[in-house]
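Running this now, will post back.
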Amino acid sequence: MLFNSISFAIFLPLVFFGYWFVAKKNFRYQNILLLLASYFFYACWDWRFLFLLMFSTVLDYSTGILMSESSTISKRKFWFWLSIVVNLGFLGVFKYYNFFALSFAEGLANLGFQVNPWTLKVILPVGISFYTFHGLSYVIDIYYDRIKPEKNFVDYSVFVSFFPLLVAGPIERATHLLPQIKRKRFFDLAKAKDGLRQILWGLFKKIVIADNCAKYANMIFNDSSDYSNLSGSTLLMGAIFFTFQIYGDFSGYSDIALGTARLFGIDLLKNFAFPYFSRDIAEFWRRWHISLSTWFRDYLYIPLGGSKGGTWVRVRNTFIIFLVSGFWHGANWTFIAWGFLNALYIMPSIIFKTNRNNLDVVAKGRYFPNFKEIVSVLITFSLTVFAWIFFRADNIGAAFSYINHLFTESLFTMPKIFPYEIVFLIIGFVFIEWLGRQRNYALEGMNLKWPKVIRWTFYYLLIIAIFYFGGEEQEFIYFQF
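Update: finished.
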């Protein structure tokens, strides 16, 4: 079930009604309803993998209790490592087994040995990377005595499988989400209206911006058989279209998830903070997929020593988290190359300790940035666009072919593919994002002081654009991760 589908448009009001009007007197009933709704939501994709989600939930729930009740350190470690190995084992088998098997066979073939690797004929369970990381953070926090294990199975299950975040995040922490699940929640009309505004903006990002950019990005990138047929300027447009596609797609999903959760009185972690207005790569990664970046920071970077050691330790740890982050996104060398490239981008700021120079929003309190800010944002955006080529390409060879044909004299010609209406939409979208960059999302409180007629006209224009530019239902990109 997709957020941008008719089925979800029916599902959400039904759950909302049952949550606030049927189970309103008992938050325990509300949690049971949320759990059943979440399992139904997931089963609509493929009911068989629902059992994998349930198994992962039972495993980590039981591990948390068993660790806390262990009489010796060795038993505590046993249960901890059992959970880690099983969780990563399932993730490895479903997501990475074929990659390693085929890469190993290819490596042997290069040495003159021909083998026929056995591969799995299964599809990747949607959201497995996200709910696995939910469980891992919970188990790790208990092991290091940061939190106590949750004894109520329903509450813990809702934490893992809450349907707005189940298939594409944000990656929640037990310290943030579980306390909200365990207490009584009251309907807040202002909060619900704000949630609806964020859902509307998320749908606009996904359907109007991302899906329309996807049409042209796919048209250009999928011509990998011969990029020489396309001018450098056309290939540049393809990279830019994908840049806005992946942002509109993923941040749009996050907006819908956060807005939907707010309808049920629950606040999820912020996942995006206008990353394309960043002035350096370090700032970009503080603003892009925030829940994953902070997860790797807390559970990988800091345990490895963080930035407390010398320059070599900082460089090593930074490369590790970026390579792991790339690999987390998918079993393809393109994602590893993308992670490696971003690690190279951020190296100067790590070595010279300037990675925390831009902690505040660009041009704070001003409508217009200064010249230095404009240049910094454009350079950072250009580096990001270049890196996305590796992320989008089907394989490493296609990525280098794309780049090779991009940087030619034809880069300075008029692109063959230039849909004016989509370009104007992107410009308008960037303008609205710029106006709202100091808020949690672009529309938050931005137009509440407008006259009612103007405010509702603006909302209806967004709705009309969604229906006018919307076509077939398109899956969210991060469903595959």
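Residues 73-110 form the longest helix (38 residues). More later if anyone needs it.
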